[in-house]
Task: structure prediction
Amino acid sequence: MATHIKNIINQFLREKKSEAKSADKIEKIIEENLGANLKKHIRLQKIYKKNLIFCSDSSSASYEFGLRKDILLKAVKKEFPDIEGAKIKIGDYD
Result:
């Protein structure tokens, strides 16, 4: 049985809305678990294959992030148990 295009579009929009809410929740958890100085230099770039991918404009911030990564992951996993890890890369994130 064929599915009407309207149903497909509505399903797609519901999924995107759900993904946006999840991203907002993850961003809030990140903000709560990173210090003010660290938040200036690191941002969540994307979620890829159950990993949080961060980008940093500072190698020292990346190092500090590495020290706090386990704490951050523990907090994220409370709300999103499917998240498996976090990775960070250094580079311009604008």
